[in-house]
Queue: 3 jobs
Job 1
Amino acid sequence: MTEPFNLTDEQISCFREKGFLQVDFSLDEKLLDTIVEKVNPLYDQQQLQQRVNGTRAQDAWKQVDEVRLLATDARIFAALEQLLGRKPLPFQTLNFPMGTAQQAHSDTIHFNSIPKGYMVGVWVALEDTDDTNGPLLYYPGSHKLDEHSMKSFGFGPRRDNYPKYEQQIQHIIEEQGLVVEYGLMKKGMAFIWHANLLHGGAPQKDLTRSRHSQVTHYYFEGCKYYTPLYSRFLRRQYRLPFWIPDTPDYELPEDKPRFLRWYQRFLMNFKRTH
C-alpha cells in the first residue's frame, strides 16, 4: 500500500511563485524500466532509427498498463490536489525515447479550462537527463504572464499558424528578459509544471543517446475543458476527455458505438465535474 504523500509549504510556495516543482516520489525503478521496454515497439521505428526529435507514443497507457499505473500514481495525485485544491483527472500520456527540441510554448494553447488554471503536466524522467541528451527547458515565473491564444496574436485557429505562435512566444521571452533553466534530473524524478509556464525541449547535443520520459497531462474536477488552438471567440472547441482509469478493469471508448461513446463520456464528465 502506498504511503500518503505530503508536500512541504516550501514546495507549494515554489510552485505558486515559479510555476514548476521538481519532486521525488520514490517511484519504483522496475516500473520505469518496464515502461521503457514495453513502449519502445510503439514508436515509429523509422523515426527512432533516424533519431527524429519529438518521436513519441501518445496514450500508450491503452497498450501498456505500467504507463497507466504511473499516470495514476496515488502520490502524484496527492501532490497535485495539494497544489490546485481539486481532484486531478489524468487524460493523456506521451512517452518519448529522446528529446523533443520543441520551441518554448505554454500548454494553455493546447489545453485549457473554465475556470482557467486547472491543467498541469507531470514529466517523469525514465532515465538520467543531463545537458547532452535533450533536457526540458523552462522559464521560471513565466506562468504569471498573460495567457496567449491564436486570437491574441491575430492568427486564425489553425494548426498551420502554430509556427507563428512560437515566434511570438520567442518575442515575449526576449521582451520580458526571461531567463531559461534546464531540467537536469535523475531517473525517477518528476517535474510538475503550471499550464501557463513557458517550456520546451533543449537541443539534443548527443544524438547517440536516449532520453526516455513520460508526460501525463491532468485536468481537475469541477471545470469545463477546451482546446484554445482550435477555438474561436464565443465558439470554443470543448473537450469531453476520457479520464485514464485508476483500475485495470475498464473498457476503452473506441470499443463502443460512436453515439454511446459520446453519451457515456458526457455522463462521466458530468458526474466527475459537478
Job 2
Amino acid sequence: MVDTALVSPNHLANLKVEQIELSPMSTEDAKGVLRWRYDPPFDWYNPPAESIEAIANLLNPRWQFHSVKVDSTLLAYASFGADGRVPGGDYREAAVDIGLGVAPQFTGQGLGSPIVTAIVRFALRNQKSSMARLTVARFNQRAIRLYTRLGFKHEQEFVHAQMPYWVMVRRQFENDEQDLSRSVASP
C-alpha cells in the first residue's frame, strides 16, 4: 500500500515539475485515493467509500485516471476526457478536459504549481490537444488562483446541482513548456 500520510509536505518543499511522473492508476493507488478525506469546505470533494465499484471506476480506461507521483509517493490523481466535465457546461470546443485531485495532506502546501504543471504538460503532450480545460467549483478560490497563475482563463460559469462552476481554459502556445515553467516560478 502506498501511504501518502507517511511523507511530510516539508520533504517535498523543493518539488520540481521534472520529478513528477504520471502513470495509469493502479489498484493500490485507487484504494489510496478512495481513503482521502478533506477538511471543510473541501470535504465536498471527498471520494466515495472504497468499494469494488469505486475502484473499478478509477481503473476504467474510459476515464483515463492516472496516478501523479514523485518517487513512490502518491501526490495526486488526474483524469483526461469526460471525467473532467460537469453536466451543464459547454464542452463543444475541442480540448482535453482535466479532472484532478491533490492528496489532502499536500493541499495548501505550495505544491499545486508543480503538480498541476506536470498534469497539464502530460495532457497536452499525450492527448494531442492544443487546449487544456478545467472545470472547478466556484467556491474553490485556492484552485482558481492557482489555475489563473498557470495561464488558465475563465471562459464560462454555470450551475449544476446548486453548485456554481467555472470552466477555465489554457491554450497552448509556442514555447508552452517554458511559459508553464515561468508560471511555476512566480509567487
Job 3
Amino acid sequence: MPTIRIDDEVFAVLQKRAQAFVDSPNDVLRRDYGLNGHAGRVIPAVQDAPRFPTRQRLHAVPNRRRVMGPILRGEKTPESEYVIPILQALVDAGGRGRRRDIVDRVGLIMKGRLNAYDHRTLSGGQIRWRNTAEWCRNAMVHPENDRAGWMATVTTPLLNPDSGHGWWEITDAGREYLKSNN
C-alpha cells in the first residue's frame, strides 16, 4: 500500500472530518471522494479551500440498514467468533498493538470464516467485519456491558481497558482464556 505524507494543517482537517474511534485518514478520504458507493462532498481546489472547511453534504448517505432490511440470523459472523482471533492477533503482536494492525491481523486469521455479508460497507463507510471486531473488543474490555450476552461467563476483562487510545492490549485473563479455549 502506498504511503503519503501530509502536513499538520491537512491532518487537522482530516481529524475534523473523521468519526472518532472508527475512521482512519484513508476512510475519510474514501468517503470524501465518494468511493465505496458513498455520496461525498465536493472538495474545492487548493487555492479555493478555506483554512478549515465546514462539513457539508451534497447528498445524504441513505440508511443502508433500512434499504437492506434487518440483519437476519446467520448472515453476519457473530461477535463471539472474533474473540479467539483478537486474542491470537494480540499474542502474535507481543501482547499489545495498534488497533488498525490488530484488526488487520484478525481479518487474516478469519479470512476463511468471513462471508460476503461481513465484507459489505456500512453507511458510515466502515467494512462490517471490522466494525464487528471493534464491538467485540469493547465487550472484551467491558464484559459487564456485553450487548449480546455471549460474554456472560467472563467476569474479568480479556483486554486492558487502560491500554491507551488506539492501542489494544491482552490481559492475563485474556491469555488464560485463549489457552483454555484454543
